[in-house]
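Protein modeling request. Please complete all fields; requests missing the sequence field cannot be processed.
Requester role: graduate student
Desired output: 3D structure, token encoding
Chains: 1
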Amino acid sequence: MKMQYHVKAYHGLGRSFARTRFISASTALFITFAAIGFVNNAQAETGRVDQVEQLDGEAGEFELESQNIWVPKYDGEASQLAMGLTFEYGLLDNFIIGTEAEFEREDGENFGLSEFAAQAKWIALSPQENAVGLGIQSSIIYNFEDDALSTETFFIAAIDGKEWTAAANIIASSEAGNLGKFDLGYSARADKEIGKNMQLGMEIGGDIAVDDPKAHWMGPVISFEPIEKGPELEISAFTGLNQNSPDVQFRLEIDWEF
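Delivered output (258 residues):
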């Protein structure tokens, strides 16, 4: 599911490189985001940032992820807040299954569960063992507001270098209740190590083919591991590249593998 950010759909919030090791700190950061979101009413969904899916996984490994997006007011539009919780488990080194729940606040309503998804990822070529890694991640999503199913599929390419990592996605998503109609989106990201347990990157994403006006965005990402063998933390900010995108968006992600 992982946030499909067209004008219509925002599936999933989820995977990047960073982890926080302080659960109390991560909780405080999320409460801050949530408090800001509740102060303002949320707008109807617009072009929100899309997360770049990576080709990582290990048999027997669990991963818990929280991704939080806050879009401040812009051009007369109200703010919006969304949060996705993802749980994954590696059945094999190249086959990962998981679930994701998405919560959001919009149109002045209460913050509540909007979608739930079951997902699976297959790594055809590992980026650690090949010049370019290739894989696919698909989700079946239940939309509570529409009481209908939708799907989302990420086609993933990734490179894992000594100091640089990069990944690119093409995202095909169907509308809730209309599984035969697909929209296309894209996202890409590159990160460089800048210190022990720290990376600095740049991310870009947007729409390729949608009925509504296309949105595009870009921004820096910083990720780090404050404590060894604990959660990773990622903080990012994005600016809209055209008038169909929010002026600015903020993302906080917490990723814990165990």
